[in-house]
Amino acid sequence: MADTIDKLPAPPAKPIEQWSLPELLNDTARRGLIQLHGIISQPLKLKQAPDDRLDPEELKLQRLVGELGLGADKLLARVQESELHHEQRQDWLEMLRQRMEEAEKRLPPKKQ
Q1: Most-buried pick from 26, 41, 54, 63 (CB within 10 A)?
Q2: What distances in angstroms separate CA 83 from CA 17, 44, 76, 98, 104, one per listed residue?
Q3: Where are the domains of the chain?
Q4: Contact (CB, 8 A) for 31 and 5
Q5: pTM higher than the cut 0.85
Q6: Closest Cα partner for 77 from 8, 1, 25?
Q7: Residues 39, 70: contact at Cβ < 8 Å?
Q8: Could you give the CA distance from residue 108 to residue 72 in angstroms, rounded to a whole number?
């Protein structure tokens, strides 16, 4: 998740009232991911034996952390998928450029 946070632009160096909507959204996403990381990272009380009992608050916290962790995993998967599509597109464009250059070399010389 730290990689995803690092890819977000740094907050603008101007008053928040002057931020554009994309700047505000980026900073909100950054802060949200940092808070999410803090929630997921907190220690949980886990059952140590089959007869152990957890109180309802502990179970609720475990479910919350589990759901947040899955949400973070889905976000990371989407980011990685987007990066892969971008890389594939760049590879495709490079291949197309090379083929265009090769085809131009095979053309007869231009008449003056």
Answers
A1: 26
A2: 32, 33, 11, 23, 32
A3: 2-45+54-106
A4: no
A5: no
A6: 1
A7: no
A8: 56
